[in-house]
């Protein structure tokens, strides 16, 4: 029984909301399949928490489970109103880069927008010795106000910081988590406590933390959820081991494996675009789509994260998770509903229908030093935390195939690289040519040169545009390629929330749709593990490319092999880019 040791540290605690106490034993009860966006009740005012699928669900108990709570409420000295819930959010690894850069700012943004429940507390936990004041000081440097709503921002910031506390401790000492538990309890007094732990720490200490938190700091009566950051292992085997170890202490529905690309606005919009517009879904198949590209490009190297990066490489860092997740969302069949399990079921089917990658399907590269305009750029191996003979790829392009009826034969060209010529992430869909094209005289013999292309620009300058052929106004018949363009900055006034905001909100609401289920993870690793093993066992060296370039030449051959073309920019794209620069 996986939870048999759950109470070993603190007599009053048990590790999951989905456990019922029966005849002195802890029994697990599944709540997978529910769409549990919780309502938080704050004093007399009902605070409906909207999660990202937009559902406002029927009233639930505070454990995120629709059955009655069968716990000895009285012994926790709770307010007579059981709905007086509180959420304690503990950021484990609070002194680290991700916590400072993303997690605390996202929590503040949620608070600023009134998305957090009225009663909540944020705890930072790490080994560094910090006081509450020092933590607040550290956090305050990275909090920002929404550009479109600066009003009262500094007051809100101060109020938020007053809800932030710190507890220092080791990651593998139950005693230290007991200390944390005491501090959490002090803040939770009189309220129904729910607890969220965000593991913003290196993956080799995930299991220690989960063991200690589960034994000593899980919510005594409410839900306990754990957000786990990537990497979820290095290959199929280590990922399964990690999952098995976590499941010694947590039920699957307590584990929120985060992939922050799933929280990005345009990735979230993919399903809306496809399933709520009649013009796209009928075209979404091998019959009309020639190829799909999923591109991630950064215009900087591994600066500061070379140590981590070198033992993972770009395939594990970006492709196996961020790009593959987008691909699965892009290619899945219509889910039965927007519920997490329905969507994740469809994604798993896509992943399981894909062909595992072989070395011939892939081009790998590594950036080398380069001088341009009097400035010199380092090579990957110039990073002092990277071994000088490292052959870890910083670039990879792969042709992937989904062997199902919808996508048979359509190449999905997946490309990710650091230190390239631009920063951006996008999905490019190239359509087939119009059969029997009346205008072939205008296009010449290569009909594939002038086909429609749909571009979903995930970042920066979020946009969706469709390249169409159009008649140039005037007498005569001249065609050109133009864009139907939905540029977010021009259309929508409000600032786009950071991905971590959406994901944190969903984890608090118990919405699992944008988190990775263990079978999805398994299926994703199965596609990459044989390739990674072969690259490493055979010491296959990456092709070098200059820092700031378009990547290795081999990637262009791979694209050409699959008839993936780079179109010259349509005229109005250039105009729009100029306009964007001025915004
Ligand atoms: N940074 C980023 O942009 C991204 C990070 N991630 C993932 O998020 C997690 C956190 O990343 P990040 O904040 O960059 O990590 P850090 O290296 O900054 O580590 C976070 C904290 O963990 C503690 N720590 C660091 N190394 C060790 C160690 N060897 N043993 C024990 N404790 C250690 C430190 O706290 P202290 O010493 O005070 O205990 C540190 O402040 C990682 O899993 C990472 O892969 C994912 C996507 C992007
Ligand atoms: O997960 C990661 O993502 C970042 C890029 O995230 P973005 O939201 O800024 O696009 C990447 O730099 C990092 O290497 C990787 O671990």
From TrEMBL:
PROSITE patterns: G6P_DEHYDROGENASE. The keyword Transmembrane does not apply. One of its GO terms (biological process) is pentose-phosphate shunt, oxidative branch. Pathway: Carbohydrate degradation; pentose phosphate pathway; D-ribulose 5-phosphate from D-glucose 6-phosphate (oxidative stage): step 1/3. One of its GO terms (molecular function) is glucose-6-phosphate dehydrogenase activity. Its EC number is 1.1.1.49. Gene3D superfamilies: Dihydrodipicolinate Reductase, domain 2, NAD(P)-binding Rossmann-like Domain. One of its GO terms (cellular component) is chloroplast stroma. Keywords: Carbohydrate metabolism, Glucose metabolism, NADP, Oxidoreductase. InterPro entries: G6P_DH (IPR001282), G6P_DH_AS (IPR019796), G6P_DH_C (IPR022675), G6P_DH_NAD-bd (IPR022674), NAD(P)-bd_dom_sf (IPR036291). Residues 272-563 form the Glucose-6-phosphate dehydrogenase C-terminal domain. It is an enzyme of class 1 (oxidoreductase). The keyword Transferase does not apply. SUPFAM superfamilies: Glyceraldehyde-3-phosphate dehydrogenase-like, C-terminal domain, NAD(P)-binding Rossmann-fold domains. Belongs to the glucose-6-phosphate dehydrogenase family. This is Glucose-6-phosphate 1-dehydrogenase. It comes from Apostasia shenzhenica.
